[in-house]
Write a structure and sequence with these properties.
Low-confidence stretches: 1-5, 7-32, 166-196, 224-231
Distance between the termini: 55 Å
Mean pLDDT: 74
Cofactor: Ca(2+)
Radius of gyration: 27 Å
Shape: flat
CATH topology of the domain at 56-176 and 186-191: Phospholipase A2
EC number: 3.1.1.4
Region (Disordered): 211-231
Enzyme class: hydrolase
CATH architecture of the domain at 56-176 and 186-191: Up-down Bundle
Structural class: alpha+beta
Order of helices and strands: HHHEEEEHHEEEEH
Protein name: phospholipase A2
Length: 231
């Protein structure tokens, strides 16, 4: 059920973006890979220049900084000893961590949606770099002439995006200053996303506790039943 819900969310998201009068011109197809209301959140960007931001400037700023963060490996590119066979760029784990912090700082509806889509539904991986000694220069006959240390990438799965939503936060524009020049603060409630494995473990422990309770109840009721029969 968990994986089915994730698939449904992704399908609905892309159907909503593509279903406009049954036509998809090139410009509209390009926009369809960008989250509505933003210029940088998606595959590539549709911004006219670097300073341009969309309707939700807060979350667009996070996406722009993540797009510009390096190092990264582009789609189908061979770099740092691995080939990225995905159709999207993968970033260094430090870049993804900064992106996660930026979305957590916004803590509103749009930033939460972007975080859930990026980390939980699409499960965008990241990579770390480690130094490894390899041959850096070869002779004409294919023998190693000199060794050296080169950076090697290692792919990591993303962590679950745990989020907290403020009661008075609705859009990414809410992180901007209000008319009186002050920011609005409110108490927040935290909702932790539960993985299917932990949910199954919780159900098993509940079943065990229920069985123990049933056995105890049966032991308590058994003597009283015997007394009634002897009388």
């Amino acid at each position: 059920m968990f994986w089915r819900n994730r698939a449904v969310v992704v399908v609905i998201y892309f159907i909503a973006l593509h279903s406009v009068n049954g036509k998809t011109p090139k410009s509209r197809l390009r926009r369809s890979w960008i989250m509505p209301g933003t210029l940088w959140c998606g595959v590539g960007s549709i911004a006219e220049n670097f300073t341009s931001l969309g309707v939700f400037p807060g979350v667009d700023h996070c996406c722009r900084e993540h797009d510009q963060c390096s190092p990264y490996i582009q789609a189908l590119e061979f770099k740092y000893g691995i080939r990225n066979y995905r159709l999207h760029t993968i970033s260094h784990c430090d870049c993804d961590q900064r992106f996660r912090k930026c979305l957590h700082t916004l803590n509103d509806t749009v930033s939460t949606l972007v975080g859930i889509m990026f980390f939980n539904i699409l499960e965008m991986p990241c990579f770390s770099l480690r130094e490894e000694e390899q041959c850096v220069e070869w002779t004409w006959w294919g023998n190693c002439k000199s060794n050296g240390t080169v950076p090697q990438a290692e792919i990591h799965k993303p962590e679950i995006f745990n989020y907290s939503m403020s009661e008075d936060s609705h859009t990414s524009a809410s992180i901007l200053h209000h008319k009186d020049g002050q920011r609005k603060d409110s108490s927040s409630h935290t909702f932790n996303l539960i993985s299917p494995s932990s949910l199954a473990n919780n159900m098993k422990s509940r079943r065990r506790r229920l069985k123990k309770l049933q056995r105890k109840t049966a032991k308590i009721n058994r003597p009283s039943t015997l007394k009634v029969k002897t009388e």
